[in-house]
Amino acid sequence: MASTATRTFARAAFRSTPLKTSSRNTAFALPRQAFRQQSRRGYASEPAKSSSTGLFLGIGALALAGGAGAYFYSQGNGSIFSGSAGETKGLFVPKAEDYQKVYNEVAALLQEKDDYDDGSYGPVLVRLAWHASGTYDKETGTGGSNGATMRFAPEGDHGANAGLVAARNFLEPVKAKFPWITYSDLWILSGVCAIQEMQGPTIPYRPGRQDKDIAACTPDGRLPDASKGNKHLRDIFCRMGFNDQEIVALSGAHALGRCHTDRSGFDGPWTFSPTVVTNDYYKLLLDEKWSWKKWNGPKQYEDKSTKSLMMLPTDMALISDKTFKQWVGKYAKDNDLFFKDFAAVITKLFELGVPFDETTQQSPITFKPTA
């Protein structure tokens, strides 16, 4: 794998359709391109020696002045500086078009690798970006997407992160092709890409995250426990700085993907179209009748009509709590409002704890979808 650069420097087809088992199975069976077309929406580290101290200070100043972050790299032996003939070395300042190339590469892999779950790695990429960001603690300023500490066993092995090695491995070829981008920036960029490629809203993206070492790993228990209720949700999300409306909007990500018995212990998808961003999650919460699933696994709900969908205790807390339920109703009725609020709150989540003032002055990048 190519050496990593110095990182410290620097939609309407599914809307309002009848919720039948047959429609779910048909959607899953569609060829990838046909599925996209039919679901397309109209909007879319040693310390420096004394002799080189001045040099490294100069490098740091240049990196901070580089807008989106400056990266020193060399092709050959992977060192920052080298005298070997034929190596390319120096200051590389990535621009918006460079990040768009990374986006396009992730999108191409999403199109090529359709053998995961319901035909897309998209949902698990969103989950990776979400879980990398959701460890933030506003009181201590620790955690968040700035660090990519899930690379290390203490955090990567946390129960809430089970299965995310699939997403991290999926992105390794991208990291090898673009060694200048940090894992921290790559994971968030990939989450943005996945949302947009799955017909979701446009998510503005700012680079500037720096990878950290194992010492920055966060303690277990900072991510939501799906077996809990509304008090737990508020405890977890308020620690990050979110209010009730934002909690409900973020929960809309459950329109995507599914649970696995060998990971969380739960099983099944939340919606009939788990690879398309819609407001169906909210519609289903309100319109379907839900009952406890009779099985040997943890407590979860299933829909009475088809018994093919599931909801978690944390999901049902959104309609048992009066304040939460008001927002569930609003998003169930208005997909555009959900898209607007989801884009705003997921952007906030992805930027928690990132020192943009020190790493970038660049305006947010708006990526052009490929689908």
From TrEMBL:
Top-level taxonomic group: Eukaryota
The EC number(s) this enzyme carries: 1.11.1.-
GO terms, biological process: cellular response to oxidative stress; hydrogen peroxide catabolic process; response to reactive oxygen species
Main location as per UniProt: mitochondrion
A Gene Ontology term for the protein's cellular component: mitochondrial intermembrane space
Segments traversing the membrane: 55-73
Annotated localization: Mitochondrion intermembrane space; Mitochondrion matrix
Catalysed conversion reaction: 2 Fe(II)-[cytochrome c] + H2O2 + 2 H(+) = 2 Fe(III)-[cytochrome c] + 2 H2O
Subunit structure: Forms a one-to-one complex with cytochrome c.
Function according to Swiss-Prot or TrEMBL: Destroys radicals which are normally produced within the cells and which are toxic to biological systems.
Protein family according to the UniProt entry: Belongs to the peroxidase family. Cytochrome c peroxidase subfamily.
UniProt protein name: Peroxidase
